[in-house]
């Protein structure tokens, strides 16, 4: 399977040789990762392609893109591998629900993911491997585990299933549990929530995991020495990682919701296959939420990269909105955060277009130091913001500084800023935001200053709900106004709703005329 096109990667003068430290989930400590020279090796779990790419996905891949770029800035080669789970229950369920062939759904969503990664300037993996193409590797691995007595088949009559699936004896492997450090009670609950089957009758141990699902009527399957079927989720990743990266590699990455069971199980399978440690460090990105809940396909509360970019939001503003948060933090995507990122991109573009600025050497060094200290992107942004503010204030006379700063933002942070000034997309976004801000101020003034009983507040509230319904119709998103159904809205609440509507309207292409018609 092909990956996506790589953006040009610039080099930045200065000393980039300091080691990179990241937080290892298993030890709970900051660890140096990557060799002193040569090749750094990283595996990051990819998508199940049925609803790509929401901001939670994007934040994870931007986080590990920072590590990739920081390693490269050290002069290391980077061997980066990512999978695509292009056969799994959620994909099949979505295909059935939508009446789309599962292969076409996987292909279309993988293509969309590639285009989103290109837009966000995420460096591609060297190998981008689908679960389907890895089936021969999975079959070999299950057979090898069987020779060690570490897999078994369920009795369908005891388990109450249609076929004798193959299971892996997870807790027979030394160091099982050393990544997530969960109690048995905690682990059992999470295992059940995240695709496991701890209560399935006939299993030797509740935490044994599926490695080969035997064929069922109406499901895709592949002939193999194990019998017709398809691979389990965890073993897919372990065999792909070790086939391309070797027995032990530097970093296993993914979202924090993958630490258990996915990374725990994959690591156990990898160690069982080789007798060696699977990864040197397990690095996990925090969860991205919307309205206080984790953004996920199952909840349907997704903000999609493709929808934002199609509506004219500059991908670099989206990337900056992500980088404003430390990769390990859980955070919520907000309209205010996107507006701040759009404004930040505008100021950066104007600063690098200046004829001169303060010497940027110390700024570049500060960016490097921040990224080497657990990929601290917010600190890196703050360093650039300080240089930008000084430049726009007319300070500094170094004509090479703007170019150096632009190269550093590009190479180290993946943010392309242009000496020609703000991109057309960013300018358009800013203009639209300013228009909606004017509308917001006007309607807020009406709501607050009209006498009680005039009906204005109620009319405005009804109008806001109509905007929300229009957005739902055009974008398919759950809008914040739904929270206020059936409630008496105050002027402040109406103002807050209009503020939320600004970016949602940017994302859907809803025009100012649409708004006035609804109001």
Structure report:
Helices cover 48% and strands 12% of the residues. Helix 12 runs parallel beside helix 14 (401-413) and helix 16 packs parallel to helix 17. Among the domains are: 315-413, Anticodon-binding domain of a subclass of class I aminoacyl-tRNA synthetases (Four Helix Bundle (Hemerythrin (Met), subunit A)), CATH 1.20.120.640; 426-518. It has helices at residues 55-73, 89-98, 102-119, 135-147, 156-159, 184-193, 233-245, 259-274, 305-310, 315-323, 335-352, 361-372, 377-392, 401-413, 424-449, 456-475, 491-508, 512-518, and strands at residues 20-24, 29-33, 39-44, 77-84, 127-130, 151-153, 166-168, 209-214, 229-231, 249-255, 279-285, 288-290, 293-294, 331-332. The model is unreliable at 468-499, 506-510 and 515-519 (pLDDT under 50). The longest helix has 26 residues, at 424-449. The strands form four sheets. The chain has a five-stranded parallel sheet with strand order 5-4-3-10-11, sandwiched between helices. It has 18 helices and 14 strands. Strand 10 (249-255), helix 8 and strand 11 form a beta-alpha-beta unit. The protein is of the alpha/beta class.
């Amino acid at each position: 399977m092909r990956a996506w096109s790589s953006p040009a990667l610039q080099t930045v003068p200065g000393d980039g040789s300091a080691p990179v430290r990241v937080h290892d989930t298993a030890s709970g400590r900051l660890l140096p990762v990557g060799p002193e020279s040569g090749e750094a090796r990283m595996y990051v779990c990819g998508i199940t392609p049925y609803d790509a790419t929401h901001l939670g996905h994007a934040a994870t891949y931007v986080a590990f893109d920072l590590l990739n770029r920081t390693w490269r800035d050290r002069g290391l080669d980077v061997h980066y591998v990512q999978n695509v789970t292009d056969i799994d229950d959620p994909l099949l369920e979505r295909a059935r629900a939508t009446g789309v062939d599962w292969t076409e759904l996987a292909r279309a969503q993988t293509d969309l993911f590639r285009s989103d990664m290109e837009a966000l300037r995420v460096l591609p993996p060297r190998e981008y491997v689908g679960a389907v193409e890895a089936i021969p590797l999975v079959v070999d691995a299950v057979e090898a585990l069987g020779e060690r007595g570490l897999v078994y088949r369920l009795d369908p009559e005891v388990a109450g299933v249609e076929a004798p699936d193959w299971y892996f004896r997870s807790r027979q492997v030394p160091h099982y549990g050393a990544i997530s450090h969960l109690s048995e009670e905690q682990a059992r609950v999470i295992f059940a929530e995240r695709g496991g089957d701890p209560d399935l009758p006939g299993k030797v141990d509740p935490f044994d995991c599926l490695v080969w699902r035997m064929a069922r009527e109406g499901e895709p399957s592949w002939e193999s020495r194990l019998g017709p079927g398809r691979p389990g989720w965890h073993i897919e990743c372990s065999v792909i990682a070790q086939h391309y990266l070797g027995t032990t590699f530097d970093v296993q990455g993914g979202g924090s919701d993958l630490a258990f069971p996915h990374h725990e199980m994959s690591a156990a399978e990898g160690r069982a296959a080789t007798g060696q440690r699977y990864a040197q460090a397990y690095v996990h990105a925090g969860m991205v939420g919307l309205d206080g809940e984790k953004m996920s396909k199952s909840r349907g509360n997704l903000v999609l990269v493709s929808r934002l970019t199609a509506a004219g939001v500059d991908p670099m503003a989206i990337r900056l909105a992500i980088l404003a948060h430390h990769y390990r933090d859980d955070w919520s995507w907000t309209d205010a955060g996107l507006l701040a990122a759009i404004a930040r991109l505008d100021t950066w573009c104007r600063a690098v277009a200046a004829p001169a600025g303060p010497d940027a050497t110390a700024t570049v060094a500060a960016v490097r130091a921040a990224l080497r200290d657990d990929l601290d992107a917010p600190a890196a942004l703050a360093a650039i913001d300080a240089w930008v503010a000084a430049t726009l204030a007319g300070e500094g006379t170094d004509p090479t500084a703007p170019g150096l700063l632009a190269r550093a933002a590009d190479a180290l942070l993946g943010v392309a800023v242009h000496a020609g000034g703000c991109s057309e997309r960013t300018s358009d976004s800013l203009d639209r935001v300013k228009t909606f801000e004017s509308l917001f101020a006007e309607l807020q003034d009406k709501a607050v200053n009209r006498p009680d009983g005039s009906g204005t507040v109620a009319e405005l509230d009804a109008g806001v709900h109509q905007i929300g319904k229009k957005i739902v119709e055009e974008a398919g998103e759950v809008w914040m106004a739904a929270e206020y159904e059936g409630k008496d809205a105050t002027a402040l609440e109406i103002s807050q709703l209009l503020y939320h509507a600004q970016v949602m309207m940017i994302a859907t292409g809803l025009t100012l005329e649409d708004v006035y018609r609804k109001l």
